[in-house]
Design goal:
The chain is of the alpha/beta class. The chain is built from 21 helices and twelve strands. It has a six-stranded mixed sheet. Strands 2-1-4-5 form a four-stranded antiparallel sheet, with no helix packed on it. It has a two-stranded antiparallel ribbon with strand order 7-8. The chain is elongated and about 115 Å long.
């Protein structure tokens, strides 16, 4: 956790201010029992009313000063804590944004969400509590001990046994609770994953009448987290009764032994009252320290999880190198192989081909053949395990990711839309997109449904694009890629939700629009790719054949099987 405290450097002046204010508050509280004892011994015992009024007035002024210092310290510590949490969330988010897809595979999305929200909140609360209480507690405890010893050193020996007993209690509770806190954070991750998965897959769940089964799974994850939380809270709930018991036993012991010292004339009644108050302050300081053990174990687990995110270096390191190209849209794969982390076999192996400007390269193959894996190499979502991917003669790992991706218009297999207007979504990759270019991109992508909406391009898209159909999402995703005006267009099975008529119109419009670019199409429909300049046939991660549609019909068994399964032999011939 201390590693995260380095993020408090911008608030160093504020932290010093809190320390000073807390010190003033504690000093005022420590001085009050002495004044109270003086009122008893010098005012009440001697019936000196003027002394009582005078000392009482001082007590009021000191109390007012301590209260103002406490309010200012609380306000300042809250601002520091919230600022610390904000900065840490920004830092974690920026780090996660630099991750390659490999890191997202390694640390699940639900876990990253939990770490960015719940875990940072835990650490933020501890920072605020430390500034308010942890600084105050030791000053009050140490100051109370000094003042108690000054009143009666012999009676202060009782505090030695109290402190030892308290340390033992805190040590046992911390040892038992820390593993439970670690388990609890993991179970929050699991619950987050279950909720996210069930909500995103609600259509499938309902379609297959699995609602009750999913409720059972959620209940199991929820009950598991609840049981662990209750166990932790039961342990923590023991602290306060034990502290109160120890405090009351200490008070009784002090009264018992002090009565003998007062009777022997070794102690004044006022000193006893002040001594008891000092002991209460010492105990209160120790109790405040104990209260931190409710937060610190859980926050320490959260801190470890946050540091795991911050310390993890992304697999793909940005070269930050800008390269000047003489030619455009020339994409080349040279003996490229790739294996997913933890996999036993390559997903794609020894892939070699060239895609040239003005040409359409199609990629076909069965499910799991490696088509999407191959196109994920182009924008460098993953780094190749071996071989090279070249853009315009330059290895893509030797240029900056920003420059590489600025030249690519990518339409993923799963269409993703963001909350906002249709215009915001289409202009996602081109901030300077004009209205004419926006309308042109929508026209080419056959997104005429936009103009049928009441607000047109200003119509709002809900989270995840749930207020538009699958085909509409695909057309808006295609419009987004077109609006970017890239050198290379990558369509990863981006026409699957379109009807044949719309598919044909879209392909015809794309031919003219992308004639100066390089087009890579992954498709299941043969009708979508049969006019491509070259077609790559993938099987088990390898290119088994390549050529035009007619060439592949004559020489490729795999391609013929795909074609006949969709069109039939009579229709092809």
């Amino acid at each position: 956790m201390f590693k995260l405290f380095k993020n408090l450097k911008p608030y160093l002046l504020g932290v010093v201010g809190v320390l000073v204010l807390v010190f003033i508050q504690v000093m005022s509280e420590l001085y009050l029992p002495t004044l109270m004892g003086n009122i008893v011994d010098n005012g009440i015992a001697k019936q000196d009313i003027n002394y009582i009024w005078k000392t009482g007035g001082w007590m009021l002024l000191i109390t007012l000063g301590g209260t103002l210092a406490a309010l200012a310290a609380s306000f300042l510590s809250s601002r520091i804590g919230m600022g610390f949490g904000r900065d840490l969330r920004n830092k974690v988010f920026r780090k996660v944004e630099s991750y390659s897809l490999h890191e997202f595979d390694e640390i699940s999305t639900p876990s990253l969400i939990t770490r960015t929200t719940n875990d940072i909140t835990q650490v933020q609360n501890v920072v605020t509590t430390i500034l308010r209480m942890f600084v105050r507690a030791p000053i009050m405890a140490i100051g109370g001990i000094i003042m108690a010893v000054s009143k009666d050193a012999t009676l202060s020996l009782i505090l030695v046994g109290v402190v030892i007993a308290l340390a033992v209690i805190i040590g046992i509770v911390a040892k038992v609770s820390l593993p439970l806190f670690k388990s609890m954070q993991k179970k929050i991750d699991k619950l987050n994953m279950v909720v996210r998965e069930r909500l995103s897959g609600v259509r499938v769940i309902r379609a297959f009448n699995r609602v009750e089964n999913e409720k059972t799974k959620f209940k199991a994850a929820n009950d598991d987290l609840t049981d662990t939380t209750i166990r932790v809270n039961k342990i923590m709930a023991l602290l306060m009764p034990l502290m109160m018991l120890l405090m009351n036993v200490t008070t009784i012991a002090i009264m018992w032994f002090a009565s003998y010292r007062i009777d022997a004339g070794n102690m004044m009644v006022g000193d006893l009252i002040a001594f008891i108050q000092y002991v209460m302050q010492i105990m209160f300081g120790l109790v405040m320290t104990t209260m931190l053990f409710v937060l610190v174990p859980r926050a320490s687990v959260s801190a470890v999880r946050i540091n795991e995110v911050l310390d993890k270096d992304p697999d793909i390191v940005d070269n930050q190198k800008t390269v000047e190209f003489e030619k455009k849209g020339h994409l080349e794969f040279k003996n490229v192989s790739f294996k997913y982390h933890g996999a036993e076999e390559n997903a794609i192996e020894n892939i070699s081909f060239e895609a040239l400007q003005g040409q359409v390269t199609a990629i076909v193959g069965g499910t799991g053949a490696g088509k999407s894996t191959l196109v994920n190499m182009i924008p460098r979502f993953y780094d190749v395990s071996s071989g090279q991917v070249l853009l315009n003669g330059q290895r893509i790992d030797q240029m900056s990711q920003a420059q590489l991706r600025s030249k690519i218009g990518f339409v993923p297999q799963k269409s993703i839309l963001f909350t906002g207007s249709i215009k915001d979504n289409v202009a996602f990759g081109n901030d300077s997109l004009s209205d004419d270019d926006l309308n042109h991109a929508l026209d080419i992508s056959q997104a005429e449904f936009v103009y049928e909406k009441e607000e047109g391009v200003k119509s709002q898209i809900s989270q995840g694009g749930t207020n538009v159909s699958g085909g509409q999402k695909q057309r808006l995703s295609i419009a987004r890629a077109l609006a970017k005006k890239p050198e290379i267009y990558v369509f990863d099975d981006s026409f699957s939700a379109l009807d044949f008529k719309t598919d044909a119109k879209l392909r015809k419009a794309l031919e003219e629009e992308t004639k100066d670019g390089t087009v890579i199409i992954v498709a299941q429909r043969i009708a979508t790719v049969m006019n491509a300049d070259q077609i790559l046939v993938l099987d088990n991660g390898k290119i088994v054949d390549s050529g035009t549609h007619q060439e592949l019909l004559n020489m490729s068994d795999v391609y013929r099987e795909i074609v006949y399964s969709q069109m039939g032999e009579e229709e092809v011939s």
